[in-house]
Specification:
The protein is of the alpha/beta class. It is built from 14 helices and 21 strands. The chain folds into 3 domains: 86 residues, 3-Layer(aba) Sandwich (Rossmann fold), CATH 3.40.50; 192 residues, 3-Layer(aba) Sandwich (UDP-N-acetylmuramoyl-L-alanine:D-glutamate ligase), CATH 3.40.1190.10; 135 residues, Alpha-Beta Complex (Protein-Tyrosine Phosphatase, Chain A), CATH 3.90.190. The chain has a 10-stranded mixed β-sheet with strand order 8-7-9-6-10-11-12-13-14-15, with helices on both faces. The radius of gyration is 22 Å and the shape is globular.
Length: 446
């Protein structure tokens, strides 16, 4: 068992410790008695939380690593000075995905949630269900639940984790129960075709004892499974929808039999799918329908998922992590139903390969917005590619404008915003921090 041998690793140093998954893993090891510290390029709320928990964080890449084990993420460049020094010193190097697999192997019950979108919300919903049902669990979430954050531990019986498909990292997990929310094409820098991506999901499922799939997803439903969910097909379904302020309630049916009424506390119909997935997993673990319904009701949302971050020129500013065409379309639909006026869309593309390879999908999703603003691409790990740039995307959408700086973005928004409008900022990059800066300081007038 990994936890039983944790003292033999000679301490853990995390390069990129401020990442949402890395910080959760760092806290988990720290709680298990391991010596943990790390570094990150920039400080953040997550690094502040780590320091408050007693985990030292160095900002920058100049600190000497004295620990015997070094943990790093795929976002760390091979030439990173600390990683290079650790390799030269022949320290034990462990990738983030490998560490996650090692951690998971120490729990009797492992519940993994995979899919192109919805992982964070579904994992968070499950954490609230387990809290309501008083089952001892530990959660590793790829986002920040508004109440629980990215890491919660009430015991060591169950491990709830996101299972990320990027670079096939979810293949490091051996799950007792796996949930596959959807298999939409994504991460085209890793998967050259939909067939490759589907093969990875099938391999992930094969590593699991039992599998739950979304029966409305044409790819996912073909993967061998024990249970399925959906709005139009599946063993577990939602019927008799009602919506108040885009917060949905519905009746859950199990193989056609009405069981219980569920009322969600978050906006957006897309969350009905996430709730059905969490419901299905919890039922297989023996939770009552009442425990599940109350847990789902207690879930109040995740940071950067349709989060109101402030106002600008009197208009509410909502930020959402949507960075895939299907997510954009769903979030824009929700915003339109909630806004009295126009929805002023700001979209920041995330990586050049995704933008280039899914260009038609982005164009289709964004062309319905009124004069959207395309903010400069968040490149992440990738070199510049003009075919997948924000400029290229803006040029394909009638009325779209490109903005390079926060000052340009603010000037355009001030000209656009009218009475009753909503600003909807979409993307998985730094657009969240940009928009928070504009709404909070109001000083970037350009």
């Amino acid at each position: 068992m990994f936890f039983d041998e944790i003292a033999t690793f000679g301490g853990f140093y995390f390069i990129g410790i401020g990442g949402v998954s890395m910080s959760a893993l760092a806290r988990l090891l720290h709680d298990r008695g391991a010596k943990v510290r790390g570094s990150d390029d920039t400080g953040s709320e997550l690094t502040s939380k780590l320091c408050a928990c007693g985990i030292p964080v160095h900002i920058g890449s100049g600190e000497k690593i004295t620990e015997e084990t070094v943990v790093y993420t795929g976002a760390i460049a091979e030439g990173h000075p600390q990683l290079k020094a650790a390799r030269d010193a022949k320290k034990r190097l462990i990738g983030r995905a490998e560490l996650l697999g090692m951690v998971a192997s120490s729990f009797p019950h492992v519940l993994s949630v995979a899919g192109c979108h919805g992982k964070t919300t579904t994992s968070s919903m499950l954490a609230h269900i387990f809290l309501r049902g008083e089952r001892p669990f530990t959660s590793h979430i790829g986002g920040e639940d508004l109440a629980l954050g990215n890491y919660t531990s009430t015991g060591g019986d169950y491990f709830i984790t996101e299972a990320c498909e990027f670079k096939r990292s979810f293949l490091s997990l051996r799950s007792e129960l796996a949930v596959i929310l959807n298999c939409d094409r994504d991460h085209t820098d890793c998967y050259l075709s939909q067939e490759e991506l589907t093969g990875a999901y099938r391999a992930f499922a094969a590593n699991s004892q039992r599998v739950i799939v979304n029966a409305d997803d044409l790819v996912a439903r073909k993967i061998p499974h024990a249970l399925s969910f959906g709005l139009y097909a599946g063993d577990i379904r939602a019927e008799n929808f009602r919506s108040v302020g885009e917060k949905y309630s519905f009746t859950v049916t199990e193989r056609g039999i009405p069981v219980i009424r569920v009322r969600l506390s978050v906006v957006g119909k897309v969350h009905v799918y996430n709730a059905l997935a969490a419901y299905s997993a919890a039922r297989l673990y023996g939770f009552t329908a009442e425990e599940i319904a109350r847990g789902l009701e207690n879930f109040k949302g995740v940071k950067r998922r349709f989060e109101l971050v402030g106002t600008l020129c009197g208009a509410p500013v909502v930020c959402d992590y949507a960075h895939h065409p299907r997510e954009i379309a769903a979030t824009l639909e929700t915003a339109r139903r909630l806004s009295e006026g126009a929805v002023r869309v700001v979209f920041q593309p995330h990586t050049y390969t995704r933008t280039r390879d899914l260009m038609e999908g982005f164009v289709q999703a964004l062309r319905t917005a009124e004069n959207p603003i395309i903010y400069k691409t968040y490149a992440a790990r990738e070199p510049f590619d003009p075919a997948g740039s924000a400029v290229a995307l803006a040029g394909r959408i009638a009325g779209a404008r490109y903005s390079q700086t926060p000052e340009q973005l603010l000037r355009r928004l001030k000209k656009d915003i009218g009475e009753g409008d909503m600003v909807l900022a979409l993307g998985a990059g730094n657009i969240y921090d940009v928009m928070r800066g504009l709404t909070e300081s109001g000083s970037a007038d350009g």
